[in-house]
Amino acid sequence: MAAKRHPLPIETRAEVIELSKAGKSERQIALQVGSSKGQVGRILRDQRDKIENLKDVQGNIPNNLKRRKLVDIAPKYCEIENACVLFLERAKEHGIPVTGPMLRTLALREAENCNIQGFSASEGWLDRVKRRHGIHGRHLSGEAASANKVVVMNWMEQIPELIEGYDPKNIFNCDETGLYYKQTTSLSLVMPGDACHGGKAQKERLTLLICCSWMGEKVKPLIIGKSTRPRCLRSVDLENMSISYKSQKSSWMNGDIFSWWINEFESLMYQAGRKVLLFMDNATVHNIVEQMEFRAVKVVFFPKNTTCSTQPCDAGIIQTVKLLYRKQLHNFILSALTHECGKVDPYKEINLARVIVWLFRAWRDLKPATIVKCFSHCGFSKAGDIVEPQQTPLLETEAETLLSAEEEQMEIFPPVVEPEELFDKVVTELKDQLEEVSIQAIAPTEIITTEDDVAEIPNNKQVLQALETIELYAAGRGDDEVLGGGFNLAWYRQIIEERAHMEATQTTIEDFFKKTSL
């Protein structure tokens, strides 16, 4: 097996070029830099080719290609570049974001201090610096920089003592998060020459509270909206929905709502005869629990400014739920623009009833193994092995695929009015059909049918509309077993979606040109 090639660092390659300019032979240079004669020869030939190419076709190549040819050449302003890299490392230690204009300003100051003439800190120079050092832009991760590592380590050492005497299934964590339920992304693919203009930002916001146990048990979520009685839920019993709903003028969590929720949670645990440990952050609205007494719940607060490292919900549970929700949203938008030829504005069709169904699906599809891994990541461990559910953990690559709306094709569902009435009608029709089948089985007779007597088989879109209506009704009535596929509704829905995708006809460019009579 041939040995792998090890390219010389850029500093050594620059030294080879300088030694060659000084008149030394390739053999002398190879001995001095500790390389082979052949490698030195290749470096010098490449350098000569680059110079010749720049001289011969200087006016015939784009500027970006010229910059690429110069990337591998030793930097001209090493002092300035090193100062910028050092500044970037110091800013990273303090969690301070650094932008391109900041580095260019720093470079100009450094050039002035070093009496360097002719340096302009252009965009091209900054681009070469970033490529040489592998610098690229990223989003800073919330509170991670402000978390005190010593406090986090001390907290994790205290966890075994705090959870002593509690079974992992009785250790819970709750947390709130904001959900912009119509928002997708600010990035978009565009055609060449198209202006990148978006519509009005979708800023409709809900507050979502989730709670789950160390072993993956999931409590009914709570959402907080602005309207006391949303119009799309006017015929629904809000107290018995699959997801609890409360209202606040700014759709924020407040003391009254949180005290109601924790009392409901405590009542649920007490009726089940359980003693549980509930971990939460020290948000101001949570301080109300210090004035409350519980029979079945003991509340423990995480240290301040450490929840990014100590709270399981912040370790990936909330992010996964949002990704699963966004998958539902993307599928809906994709269907609206595909099957309705862009005639329907998808955002106008999104109401709270649909959001409740999508959130229920996201919460249902969250794997218990994901919750277990998030608890373990935050230091929850005790004596004895904890058996994880036999499911594949959610990996980062899987989380990325959740955003792929092209994997599933769904039909557009129109707004449903009075789902209870339509559901009752469906049930009545099914009963009538069953009675007719029973009568025919008891006294079979010769039946002559005509084309008018044969019932038309509904198409995929009609069936999906009916299933959507049933799902909205089930969410409003708290029939979790229906939404969860208790009688194969979820399985049948998946079958119909696959049929709709397979039977969909792809539009070609010829479809847009039709013959017209003169």
Describe the overall structure.
Keywords: DNA-binding. This is Tigger transposable element-derived protein 6. Residues 68-139 form the HTH CENPB-type domain. One of its GO terms (molecular function) is DNA binding. This protein has 518 residues and is an alpha/beta fold. The protein folds into four domains: 16-70, no CATH class; 78-133, Homeodomain-like (Arc Repressor Mutant, subunit A, Orthogonal Bundle); 146-185 and 202-403, Nucleotidyltransferase, domain 5, CATH 3.30.420; 419-509, no CATH class. It is built from 18 helices and six strands. The chain has a six-stranded mixed beta sheet with strand order 4-3-2-1-5-6, covered by helices on one side. Strand 2 and strand 3 (222-225) form a beta hairpin. Helix 1 (10-21) runs antiparallel to helix 2 and helix 12 (352-365) packs across helix 16 (460-477).
SSE layout and pairings?
Blueprint: H1 10-21, H2 26-33, H3 37-56, H4 63-70, H5 78-93, H6 100-113, H7 123-133, H8 149-162, E1 171-180, E2 205-213, E3 222-225, E4 244-247, H9 255-271, E5 276-280, E6 297-301, H10 307-310, H11 317-339, H12 352-365, H13 368-377, H14 396-401, H15 419-442, H16 460-477, H17 480-483, H18 489-503
Parallel strand pairs: 1-5, 3-4, 5-6
Antiparallel strand pairs: 1-2, 2-3
The tally of domains stands at 4
**Individual helix count:** 18
- What is the CATH topology assignment of the largest domain? Nucleotidyltransferase, domain 5
What is the CATH C-level name of the largest domain?
Alpha Beta
Radius of gyration, rounded?
Answer: 32 Å
Q: What's the number of extended β-strand segments? A: 6
Structural class: alpha/beta
Strand order of the largest sheet: 4-3-2-1-5-6
Specify the biggest β-sheet.
6 strands, mixed
Family: Belongs to the tigger transposable element derived protein family.
GO molecular function, one term: DNA binding
Protein name: Tigger transposable element-derived protein 6
Domain HTH CENPB-type: 68-139
